[in-house]
Amino acid sequence: MTWILEDELQLSDVTTELLKLLPQTGVVLFEAEMGSGKTTLIRSILSFLTENKFQGSPTYSLVNEYLSTENKAIYHFDLYRLTDEKELFDIGFEQYLSEDALLLIEWPEKSLNFLPENIFWVYIRVTDKNHRIIELRHDNRS
Fold this sequence. Notes:
The chain has one domain (2-134): Rossmann fold (3-Layer(aba) Sandwich), CATH 3.40.50.300. By secondary structure, the chain is of the alpha/beta class. The protein is globular and about 40 Å long. Strand 6 (118-128) and strand 7 (131-140) form a beta hairpin. The mean pLDDT is 90. The protein is built from four helices and seven strands.
């Protein structure tokens, strides 16, 4: 599924459509270049799913935890500053994967060896200053 985002006012509509296709629990990876809107899209997703205030991107803490309106855990990971996948052990990444939770992961490249077979990818491409193409893909590697 693909959406063209022509301005930030459409973000709510795109998020609504995206959430109809995403699982309530599982892994969602966000792939895009720096400054393309990964965190903005995740903020929008969290505004639909939680009553918690958005804590910002967890660039330094690596993970922020939220509670959905249905009392399910949601974890927002930003793995940008990881130098290697061994650091995932330090934050207990494998334990997060075993929970009945929704994991939203920015910069997922370092986590690929740990991920389950059933994942969703959200790709964001910048076409110009105000336009984005958002694409959702389901990957069942089994």
